Amino acid sequence: MNRIKKLFRTGRKFKTGIILSGGGVRGFAHAGILKALNEADIYPDIISGVSAGAIVGSLYADGNTPDEIFEIFAEDKNFFKYVKIKLPGRGLFKTVGLKKNLENHLEGKKIEDMKIPLIIAATNMSKGEVVYFDKGEVLDRVLASAAIPVLFEPVEINGDLYVDGGVLDNFPVTPLVKKCDQLIGVSLNPIQPEEEFKHLFSIAERTFRLSVSSNISPKISLCDMLFEPEELGEFGLLDASKGEQIFKLGYEYAKKQLKDS
């Protein structure tokens, strides 16, 4: 779905803001869509991201191209390369592989160091509220934003425990509404019927997807342009082996939407 209202709110601080939703491995589509936007000479002036959107958004805000972001994760086609099993504890896995990968590729150490202004949404478990970080250590806040409850260990920041921002806001448009002339949204969580659940992961994944999708619909109407590839419903949140396919899907989808607009 692609919505272009072509509304320009004169006097706002930024011309173009982009919202990148969560979506696990579907985050490869963020990079593909960003590539198509850049080829159409559309570049975000500020980014608001959550979970997978925070991962891609931080790398893009740090100066990496969409193709470079894809390459950073393309070689790791096995979910277990990103994590380490941790039992017992606050989560089934520690995101040691993801942390190392981001450490190796993020030049900026703080959100304030990013080349493009960045906002990261995470859920404060201690206080039961969503927090939109626009300053502080970028790595910890990205990992917190992507810490799917139960699966991944929460991240402690300033004494509070944080988990995936998608729990309370999987489409963090709110911080950008009064800051931008136009808003571009990317939502990666279409819900399709599913009849078979083979293991614990599939049940946990489905439960999480349903919960985070429930808070998106009222917010997408705030966007002037929306990318929401329905085909992504065929891909699981954790199937890293499909990264290249998802990247290409996002790119081709966005190219077509931009052409048709």
In short:
Helix content is 33%, strand content 18%. By secondary structure, the protein is of the alpha/beta class.
What does this structure look like?
The protein has 261 residues and is α/β, with parallel strands linked by helices. The protein is 33% helix and 18% strand. The chain has eight helices and ten strands. It has helices at residues 28-39, 52-61, 66-74, 96-105, 138-145, 200-213, 217-220, 243-260; strands at residues 14-20, 46-50, 84-85, 93-94, 118-124, 129-133, 155-157, 160-164, 180-186, 225-227. Strands 1, 2, 5, 6, 7, 8, 9 and 10 form an eight-stranded mixed beta sheet that branches. A hairpin with a 7-residue loop joins strand 3 (84-85) and strand 4. Helix 1 runs parallel beside helix 8. It is globular, with a radius of gyration of 17 Å. The termini are close together. The model is unreliable at 1-9 (pLDDT under 50).
Low-confidence stretches: 1-9
**Which geometry do the CA atoms define?**
globular
SS-derived structural category: alpha/beta
The tally of strands reads 10
Rg measurement, Å: 17 Å
Report strand %: 15-25%
User: Helical amount among residues, as a percent range?
Assistant: 25-40%
Provide keyphrases for this structure.
single chain, 261 residues, alpha/beta, 8-stranded mixed sheet, two-stranded antiparallel ribbon, 8 helices, disordered N terminus
